[in-house]
Every structure is written in structure tokens, then in C-alpha cells.
Please model this.
Amino acid sequence: MRLFAQGLDARFWSLIAATFLGFLGIGTVLPGLAPHIRHDLGGSDQSVGFVIGVFSFVALVSRFFSGPLADRKGRKIAFLTGLASCSLAGAAYFMPWGIPGMYVGRTLQGFGEACLYTGAAAWAVELAGISRSAQALGFVSSGIWGGISAGPLVGTWLGTFHRAAAMQVVTALIALAAATLVKEDYEPTPHIKHRRWIPSYLVAPGIAIGFVNVHYPVVAGFLILHLAHHGNSGPAAFSAYAGLMLLSRFFLGGLPDRIAPQITYYFGIAAMASALLILATGPSPLIAVSGTALLGFGFSFPFSSVASTVLRQTPDSLRGSAVGILSAFYDLFVGISSFAAGAVAGRWGYPAAFVMAALALGAAGITGKFIFRPEALPAPETEEVLDLA
Model:
């Protein structure tokens, strides 16, 4: 098989499979979480929002721990820590603690997701080789999105929240067992303690990734509502968005390794901006589905283009921290844009939210000018990086 011939061996695919299982479990509990809190535990709508939202807050903060953990203790330790935490999260949902138990579960899940992603991304890049970093990140992303997309379907099929929670425990333990057998080549090296939380060379890449992902809460929150007034093509359009994103990340994720990453970056954001403006017009079902397919296709390229550029100029002893910080920017921008999209849509209507996301991509294009040039990323060894491990 050609992928194996390129050096992506059984260890690499075992890691991708374990990543898929970990995120499958995370996604499985989502459909039943809100109804369980609201109806079984007697919680309010506010409780539902707080329990769901605590995940993102914990994940954001945990990025600053998971990166140094992966650098100081190893990618495998970070990855296994994430899976163990996800398994404990599923177990917490069975505890007779009521709504506080839901907070415990979501907190463990947020911490687990941060460690799981950081460990998987840094480990995959090293297994594949830094020259194939974009391709490795594309496969990791396929495993993540594949698991998150399939998880709600599995959770709905299982029928009850506690069955879904049990599924999360099982998938995390299977993934943990599989990952334990994968040999890690990375040897951690001692770090000198530094003072800076976010090195300056990661600020522009982080902001670029953040602006690229402003569209996600718009699509997740308002696509179906918006298209309900234009042929009700929302479910099919969202499926096209997710499907094209998965396929292109899996089969074309290595393009930034073979051509200049700034080409794939700007192509991706141009395709995304065009698609968002098409969707803002309230198109017919055929054009809407085609537009979201273009959006998902374009979305496949910016992150891997930026991250591979950063990781190639980052020593292996700091790559976990770099991945964690870039992911933190993603969490921050998605969280802020979720509130912004709601405010914009409430005041000016759904089309305005899509225009807002397109404008954010314009800002991502401007930020890219500070990333894709030789002097854009100074030597990371000269930066101060906070050591939290």
C-alpha cells in the first residue's frame, strides 16, 4: 500500500485508530447530555449551558499543561493521560452526584481532549517525519473529525445517556490499550524553566488559525436555521461540509508538504470566503450544498499549512507546546465567535453571521503575511516558554 511505502507504518495507523476511538467516545455522549441534565436530573436550561460550556473552558486552560507534558514526559504519556481522563469522564457520569457529577465528567473530558489532541498531533508528526508533517496532521484531523462526527450517531443509536457513557469508557480503554503497544521514539530532554506563556513566534500563526475557525460556530449554530428558509437543505449541506472536509484532509492533507504551504493556505481561505458569501445570499438547495462542500474542502488546508510551517521551525523538544498553544488559539476564537455570531445574527439576521465569518477570513489572509516568509518565525530556542510540567 502506497501510504505504508511512504513511511506511515503500523505504529502510525495504530495511533490514528486510537485517536478516532478516543474522539468517538467524546462524541457519543453529546446527544443525550442535555436531555439527561434537563429531564433526568431536573436541571435548568442554564445548567445545561454551563455544563456543556465548561468543557471548552477546561480544554483551553489545559492546552498550556498538555503541551509541556508532551515535551517533558513524552507524546505517549500525554496521549495516554488524555485517554485515561476521557475514560474517567465516562465513569463520572454513573456516579450518584447529580448535576455536580456532570460538571466533573465534562471537566475530565475537557482535560482529556486537550492531552489527547496534543499528544496525538506531536506524536504523529514524529512517526511520519517532519517532512510529512502536514500529511500527518491531516490524518490526525481525519481521525478526530471522524470520531466526533460518528459519535453522536452511535450515541443516538444506543438510546440512553448511560449506555453512551459506558461506550465512552469502553472506547477510551480500547484506545488506551492499543496506544500502550505503540513504541515511542521521542526522548524527552530537560527544559530550563522560562517565564513566557505564549512565545511571540506563535502569536501570528495562532491568530491566523483563530480567524480561520470563526466560521465553525456560524456553520454549527446557524446553517440549518438559515437554510430552512431557502429550500430546507441544511442537513444535506452540513453533511456535504463534513464529508468533503474529511475526504480532503485524508487524501489531500499532504499537499502543504509538496508545494509551498502559503499556496494551500491562501487557496483554502479564498475557497472558504467564497463559499460563505454564497451561503449568505440564501441560495437554492443545489447551490447551498455545493457551497458547503466548497467550504469544507477549503477548510481542509489552512491549519495544516500553518502548523506544518511552525513545526518545521520548532525543535522537537518544543513541538508539543507549540501544538498546545495553537490549539488554545482555536479554542479562544471559537468561544468568542460563538457569542459574536449569536449577537450578529440576532441583530442583523443569519446572512450577516456568514458575512462576519467571511470577513474573519480576510483578517486571516492579512495575518498570513506574517507567517509565510523566512524571517516570520524566529528561532524558538530564543523564546521564553512557560514550563508547566
